[in-house]
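Good morning,

Both structures are done.
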Amino acid sequence: MTYYCLICHAPYNPAISWCHILTLKHPDILCEKCRRSLFVINGDICEICGRPFEHLDPSYRQGSLCTDCIRWQENHDWKDVLTKNRSVYLYNEFMKEVVSLWKFRGDYAIVQAFQEEFSRAFSQHFNDTFLIVPIPLSAERLYERGFNQAKALAELLHLPIHDILIRHHHEKQSKKSRRERLQTENMFQLAEPISLANRRVVLIDDIYTTGTTLRHAAKLLREAGAKEICSFTLARS
């Protein structure tokens, strides 16, 4: 039977093993070339942000942390706001193309290609004691895009989702300098008054770039009483 790759749409014949037959596991919905182009993060990583140290210039590392996280930790306002981030894939050129297809051209079905590895990585680093909180889009951005990519990812986990954040519409963070990002008024607010006393939260988002967006959300949740806020993203740039 011929299948068509969910990303490149090329025809391919997936390998079918006894595992697929005995467990009724579905064949991969990506061709081998596209699957191999998704680089899964493994090995030595930054203790906080999950940045892979492989191929990273040694000058960007100090011990178990990358220099970006050291700067966050040296800032009194942001120290320990985010406990850790873990990401599934490296945000390489191929992943940039995939994310563009998914987010900006509205190919929602592509999220299915991440199901197995996203769920597996989550179970390696987190568990069901964490509240699952997807990073929201502003109403304006949600209208433009048609769906929230962070919530689509959270739904892959088949765990309760807590939509407790609202996002205000601001200029995209990618267009701002680091200083401007830090000085931006918090883009989030709680959907309703809530106590998170002694709760553990994992924020779900698509990409960890500078960590600013996630830390703004984490800071708000800290103020609501959460004792630990982590993040889990599809990709790490």
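Second structure follows.
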Amino acid sequence: MTTTPLAVPAPRALLELLKPITWFAPMWAFACGVVSSGVGLQGRWPLALAGILLAGPLVCATSQAVNDWFDRHVDAINEPQRPIPSGRIPGRWGLYVAAGWTLVSLAVAALLGPWILGAALVGLVLAWIYSAPPLRLKRNGWWGNTAVGLCYEGLPWFTGAAVMAAALPDARVILLALLYSLGAHGIMTLNDFKSVEGDRRMGIRSLPVQLGTASAARLACLVMGLPQAAVAAALLAWGRPWHAGLVALLLAGQGLLMRRFLADPRGRAAWYNGTGTLLYVLGMLAAAVALRGGGA
């Protein structure tokens, strides 16, 4: 009697499932949190590096595995070449990876302290309810984009500051983290333009499906822009005029790019993601440096 060997995914397919390219956003936000804390890295490098590992290769990677597992039927329509629908991640391995990465993420977060563990727990819960039934927040673009924006920007920023301070971060740090999370809601809308047909067929009410591509594009620009204007105003009120001016200048640059994006939202969403979003994250760093420098 012969038995069929257990199919195990190749390392390359696993890496593709965890999507390293998506790790940049939370790792950058974590670094902004570190900078905004005002605490020097002397003697705290191991904590900072562990936090970056937690933000990107662990929590963010977990969210990617969870999303791909519960999106496998949609991906079979929109992107059948992905690891799970293509069969390169066989059987229930996608689910096993998602669960395993969740446990490892919680273990690392616990080592970094209670505030970090709490933030990681919130992020992981959002990652699961974003994709998994019965809540499946991604079925509605309003809720889903809010959850992803918080996980990609706000929570990593908060975590970076909390790791360095070993305490609850300053209220100004939390405010900027929340504002950039709100702006990220618009960035998440950009990702939905590529899958309008599949989302509509599968009952996923992304904002381009709900509002139409033109209206969703205008809303995305507004949601990206207003929080940055609020950041510039806050920095000005805190006595950081040069940093406020830099954030405003970067926002003006995004405004020019937005005009081109709005002329062809579906065709230029990916283009704007690679251009306007760069200016967005540079503004994040400018705001973080402003807090590091102190102020009223």
